[in-house]
Write a structure and sequence with these properties.
The chain is an alpha+beta fold. It is 32% helix and 24% strand. The protein has 19 helices and 28 strands. Strand 18 and strand 19 form a beta hairpin. 44% of the residues are buried.
Length: 662
């Protein structure tokens, strides 16, 4: 994408332009031309500065002592305020149309994240104040709190009613810029339902900090400014504003009026003296709801249905840190809304790694709560509420290859209709990547009274013990027929471990209230099980355990078990009842039956079979188990024959997936 191919932004006298900048000088280097174009068209222009840039340590000598540092900081803030008024006046902006808010420089992230409430203000390490110490700001002595900043922006928006709002890009590399974008978006969304003018308010993002962009450094009035390469390929729509020779010259002269910034940053600031300015068209993400055509995904599954388009796209490999630690380089974030869960899929440039810390930060809009999740692959989720994170079992997470997927109960977020989402990665205390805060619009939730919501996920090693317990309870009569007394749970757990290690995706679980309440074991290939039993020495260990008496299994039950399984193998591999794959076992904990959990699990198993090209699927059920038979029939299975073992008759049911696809 080049600037010459970008559509040009049209402005008219009916427009009301609002430019929001985190620091003095951002408003002019990023939007000096669009401000002049708007004024030339007869539009009204207003500029808002969130901070006074008083934490910029390179401008001036290093002070000694806290009191001297505080005076020097406030002096720098006042200086930069005067510079901004003078520079904006040079391009035609009336000082009455410039508003300073006076919030802490390099502290906007703290206001958004930890110090939202006025009751818990942020203490700036530069001014040593918890409220703005400056005169001439919108709210005198404004507390350093995110709530106060958001209210100031909302009040300004109500008064100014802009038709075009220009503010930082959410993926700007500077923390203050990225969070400033979230604050402005939050204020705009707060007025979306109450102000008719909001329907026609356009949003444009500008970028100031993104690697070595703009390049080359220094002024070049003949060269068009192009979108940053790291953002140009992410599917956003960009527009440009092309300046005249006099407009470009005035912008250059105005930039030089930021005298406190020119010695350390002159070449960078004048890099924005170009023939044009570029802006990304702002657009929030729409999260699709789950439906019959788009069912709830299987967390960590191989054939999980997810939306085709991600809600967040992030540049890959655009820094040295990301190139070294690809496991922490965020590529995309997908979202989907279930009946009572928000499903997220994080895609990385490399395989998810255990030594990388993955964080997902969510906050609703309007702001009532904030949730910070720390993900520890493959499945642990911690809630970061203070110095010590706490295990959060309600959130289901799984890592699979380059993907990290999780299901977050909507109840934890308060069933929001709008939510800000950010993803951050770190390794050994070093930040790797940050997506920025993006607003997602969610569909209506189906809040469930009484019955807990269920999430289906690929099993992990930690799920084997609860699966064994559910099996032992669900098939107690069959086990007593063979063993006369319940076998050790460790023996059953070993069977599940064999299935899990031979074909990890074959074992899927249902999770409710933070615990496993059901499972399905559906391998694509039984040969893998037999090979794993031999190659991983399961058969040898079981034989040794039986000879030593540890399994508490006599010769007679062992003989019956062997003959019964031989019957199943014979009928499954040849004849009319043969099939390509089998559902070996499905069970639900007693307190959770009758809620469609088995149906959900089997559907995910069938989707996985279809993804592997399986044609015919087989399962067996006792003829007297009418409830299970109805479930299987509703899924398309048909009773095709009968077989017997030492415990009685089995009804063999088959499903042709090829016919289902047709």
């Amino acid at each position: 994408m080049t600037a010459r191919s970008l559509p040009r932004l049209a402005l008219s006298k009916e427009d009301r332009l609002l430019v929001v900048a985190p620091h003095p000088d951002d408003e002019l280097i990023a939007a000096g031309l669009i401000i002049q174009k708007a004024l030339a068209a007869g539009a009204r222009v207003h500029v808002v500065l969130l901070t006074l840039g008083d934490a910029f340590g390179y401008a001036g000598p290093t002070p000694v002592g806290k009191r001297v540092a505080t005076r020097r900081t406030e002096s720098l803030g006042a200086t930069r305020r005067r510079e901004s008024l003078r520079a904006l006046g040079h391009i035609g902006v009336d000082p009455a149309h410039v508003t300073f808010l006076g919030y802490p420089d390099r502290g906007l992230a703290a206001l958004w994240e930890q110090h939202w409430s006025r009751e818990k203000p942020y203490r700036s390490p530069f001014t040593l104040q918890e409220a703005s110490p400056y005169d001439g700001i919108l709210t005198p002595r404004a507390p350093h709190a995110g709530e106060a900043l958001a209210d100031d922006l909302i009040a300004l928006l109500r008064r100014l009613r802009p038709t075009l709002c220009v503010y930082p890009h959410p993926q700007d590399a500077h923390r203050d810029h990225a969070v400033a974008s979230a604050f402005v978006t939050y204020a705009l969304e707060a007025l979306a339902g109450e102000a008719s003018w909001m329907q026609g308010c356009r949003r444009l993002y500008y970028v100031v900090h993104k690697g070595g962009w703009p390049s080359p450094r220094g002024p070049n009035a003949r060269k068009a400014l192009e979108p940053p390469p790291a953002l140009a390929g992410l599917g956003q729509r960009w527009v440009e504003v092309v300046g005249t020779t006099s407009e470009i010259r005035r912008k250059y002269q105005a930039i030089l009026m930021y005298r406190s910034q020119i010695p350390p940053l002159g070449r960078f600031l004048t890099s924005f003296v170009r023939r044009s300015e570029v802006f990304a068209v702002g657009k929030d993400g729409e999260v699709p709801p789950c439906s019959r055509e788009q069912p709830e995904p299987l967390i960590g599954g191989e054939a999980a249905p997810w939306p085709q388009k991600p809600q967040i796209l992030d540049a890959v490999g655009d820094s040295v840190t990301k190139q070294v630690e690809r496991a922490g380089d965020i590529a995309a974030v997908y979202a989907q809304a279930g009946r009572a869960h928000l499903f997220l899929r994080l895609e990385m440039a490399g395989r998810v790694a255990g030594d990388v810390e993955y964080r997902v930060i969510l906050s609703d809009c309007p702001r009532t709560r904030r949730l910070v999740l720390r993900l520890k692959p493959p499945h642990r989720v911690m809630e970061v509420t203070g110095a010590r994170p706490e295990l959060l079992r309600e959130v289901v997470a799984r890592a699979a290859g380059r993907r990290l997927e999780l299901a977050i109960p909507a109840e934890l977020l308060g069933f929001p209709r709008k939510v800000f989402v950010a993803v951050e990665t770190r390794s050994r205390g070093i930040g790797i990547d940050r997506s920025g805060y993006h607003l997602l619009h969610l569909p209506g939730w189906q809040e469930q009274e009484g019955a807990p919501s269920v999430v289906c996920a690929a099993a992990t090693a930690a799920d084997l013990a609860p699966c064994a317990a559910i099996f032992a309870e669900s098939f107690r009569e069959s086990l007593l027929h063979l063993f006369k007394e319940p076998p050790p749970l460790r023996l059953i757990q070993e069977m599940f471990r064999l299935c899990f290690e031979a074909e990890p995706g074959a074992l899927m679980v249902a999770v409710a209230e933070g615990k496993v309440v059901g499972y399905v074991c559906a391998p694509v290939s039984l040969r893998r099980l037999w090979r794993a039993a031999v190659s991983r020495r399961y058969a040898l260990r079981w034989l040794a355990g039986w000879l030593r008496g540890r399994l508490r299994l006599g010769w007679t039950p062992l003989r019956l078990l062997f003959l019964d399984k031989l019957q199943f193998v014979r009928s499954a591999v040849a004849g009319e009842l043969a099939a390509d794959a089998r559902i070996l076992s499905v069970a639900v904990a007693p307190g959770y039956r009758g809620r469609g959990i088995a149906t959900q699990l089997i559907r995910h198993a069938l989707a996985r079979f279809a993804a592997h090209g399986v044609g015919k699927v087989r399962l067996e059920v006792r003829p007297w188990n009418e409830a299970a038979i109805r479930v299987y029939q509703n899924l398309g299975f048909e009773a095709m024959g009968t077989m017997h073992d030492s415990g009685g008759a089995w009804s063999v049911m088959l499903l042709d997936l090829q016919e289902e696809r047709v």
